[in-house]
Amino acid sequence: MRGTVYQRCSCPLVKDAAGAFLKDVNGRNRRAHRPRCKPTWGYVFDAGPRPNGRRLQKTKSGFSTRREAERALTEALRSFDKGTFVDTGRLTVGTYLAGWLDGKAALRDTTRRSYESHLRLYLAPALGHRRMTELRYAHVERLFVDLQRRPSPGLSAASLRRIYATLNSALNGAVKHHLVATNHAAHVELPAVRRQEVNVWTMAADIPRIGGC
Known about the structure:
Strand order of the largest sheet: 1-2-3
Oligomer: single chain
Shape: elongated
CATH topology of the largest domain: DNA polymerase, domain 1
Strand content: 5-15%
Largest sheet: 3 strands, antiparallel
Number of domains: 2
Helix content: 25-40%
């Protein structure tokens, strides 16, 4: 099994006379369990690198028995291998977006500044407080509806699409790293970018008529 299960409780850790923590047979810190202690079980497994290159661990606790935790770990690993696993942690959209940007070391300076402004001015204020697992299509849609309704001069359609492209790229990364099951920005409708009318010069229009021809 690639992951492991563990027991957790609030009972104090046991130390020796020198103040060092004592270990159990599995190498974990021993606890002085109280008479009415009801420890719970959890699991943890390695899920590969984060967008910033650090290792990502998936964990969940609150199981009543070791057997429940082992079954849940087996199911989580199966879902992870199939690409359907969803992290149930407390990671917020704001924290994820900051880590996503930090992990893009190869960005040009101008692109990085553009992403940073999108996160700081629009995405983090509207979505940053939400957990990744709570984010829904309606939240993303509301963000862009509100941006379109900003008072004059507001944001152009081209600006809205650049902000959207930043969020869409970030959420695609979240799907790839199994932080969300789907990219809720994928089908948001945005206003079309109007193409400026261009007056095309032609020789026929510029040559004066001679002799009534």
